[in-house]
Amino acid sequence: MAGRGIFAEIMDGDVFKYYVHGQWIKSSSGKACPIMNPTTRKTQFKVQACTQKEVNKVMDIAKTAQKSWAKTPLWKRAELLHKAAAILKQHSAPIAECLVKEIAKPAKDSVTEVIRSGDLVSYCAEEGVRILGEGKFLVSDSFPGNERTKYCLTSKIPLGVVLAIPPFNYPVNLAVSKIAPALIAGNSIVLKPPTQGAVAVLHMVHCFHLAGFPEGLINCVTGKGSEIGDFLTMHPGVNCISFTGGDTGIAISKKAGMIPLQMELGGKDACIVLEDADLDLAAANIVKGGFSYSGQRCTAVKVALVMESIANTLVKKINDRVAKLTVGPPENDSDITPVISESSANYIEGLVMDAKEKGATFCQEYRREGNLIWPLLLDNVRPDMRIAWEEPFGPVLPVIRINSVEEGINHCNASNFGLQGCVFTRDINKAMLVSDAMETGTVQINSAPARGPDHFPFQGLKDSGIGSQGITNSINLMTKVKTTVINLPMPSYTMG
């Protein structure tokens, strides 16, 4: 796995190097950050602890490389992205193996993430050529009071240096969803991966290295957030920040200054189930949406708002499916694997205990071993319980019984989050009315929330983020409009 074959050069003993100016190097700090295996709770990997001085150097290198890259023909940028995508997919197995050990993602899902990432890069290359290959032509006399004395040409040009910060749960996919749009648009990249997931990201970066991108265009620094986090996000050399994660993003947005921001933050994605819904379909999607990757997804179903008249039936159908979920290590492709850290498991347990004290109905016995928490459905959850509002990021799903559609919509909209939501009903008119009323970036009709396909727009309202993602939207966000106006002589009229 890691350290063998083409990936040998990214290691120094048992510590992974960081990447700058087309080279894999060690930090001058002489320090390393340990990466814990969530399953064994022991150190699995180590990465460099970069310094602020090294970050400064990386920023200077990225800025210089971007100037040349901006002049690189669009077809050439696309060609290199296609090459990187092929290499990434070719080496999906060792990268997936890192994901299994770093973030306890089931083995099959880990491979899927890498393959999906390669597809995203290729699609982005094609979409970028289409979007960026077009300009706009305007004439002055379309606006009242003007003669045709001005021709206006507009095109999209790069922003400069894009700082990309992906989260632990999809470190490879959410890294390339930032890198590929930035590169096709003519930007350079400084990538700061999460500590858990950093080694998989370093492997991915090496695939871009092997594709032959210019030196200094793609850079990846690792280290402690306390040492280089704020230093990176407030760095004057950064021209755009694309961040996916939790409420750290709110702090970043307050400090970042006048640059474009793409922030995808937390969610408390609500699922509203109406009386006429297909309950088998709803149950299947609630279980898939609530428990896949142990609920550690921003688009996971995090609260089910169910009409009282069908609640007993639906809860039983959900319970029957939960009973079939397998629990265990990610190497076994278990449905439920250990959550990312002990602190995360403790937080989830705190929500569960609060619900227990306040009278929630436990559909299963609460069970935990280390970071592994068995799937738990909580029925009869009330608004005074923390689990009704807070995001567990774990395999715990609350059910709130409602007496009207309005009650469900009101609960959804009272949240400070507004990422995604879903509604189950056979009546398309009702579905559209609920969709319009829900204050979320996306509403899924008769399906669990999901980010993909990766070219769909993806955005949140309120504390769930700013800016919009999806390949097309990301390319547009990572460019700015440049206008050139040609001034012509005033026309002279002759009377016929």
Automatic annotation (TrEMBL):
* Aldehyde dehydrogenase domain ranges (all copies): 24-483
Where on the tree of life does the source sit, at the highest rank? Eukaryota
Instruction: Supply the EC number(s).
Output: 1.2.1.9
Q: Which GO terms describe its cellular component?
A: cytoplasm
Write down the InterPro entries for this protein, in alphabetical order: Ald_DH/histidinol_DH, Ald_DH_C, Ald_DH_CS_CYS, Ald_DH_CS_GLU, Ald_DH_N, Aldehyde_DH_dom, ALDH-related_metabolic_enz
- Please name the GO terms that the record assigns under molecular function: glyceraldehyde-3-phosphate dehydrogenase (NADP+) (non-phosphorylating) activity; lactaldehyde dehydrogenase (NAD+) activity
The UniProt entry, under Gene3D superfamilies, shows: Aldehyde Dehydrogenase, Chain A, domain 1 (3.40.605.10), Aldehyde Dehydrogenase, Chain A, domain 2 (3.40.309.10)
Q: Which UniProt keywords apply?
A: Cytoplasm, NADP, Oxidoreductase
Any matching Pfam family: Aldedh
- Quick check: keyword Oxidoreductase in the entry? yes
Q: Which reaction does it catalyse?
A: D-glyceraldehyde 3-phosphate + NADP(+) + H2O = (2R)-3-phosphoglycerate + NADPH + 2 H(+)
The listed locations are: Cytoplasm
- The EC category is oxidoreductase
Indicate the residues that form the catalytic site. Answer: E264
Keyword Cytoplasm applies: yes
Q: State the family named in the UniProt similarity comment for this chain.
A: Belongs to the aldehyde dehydrogenase family.
Protein's name in the database: NADP-dependent glyceraldehyde-3-phosphate dehydrogenase
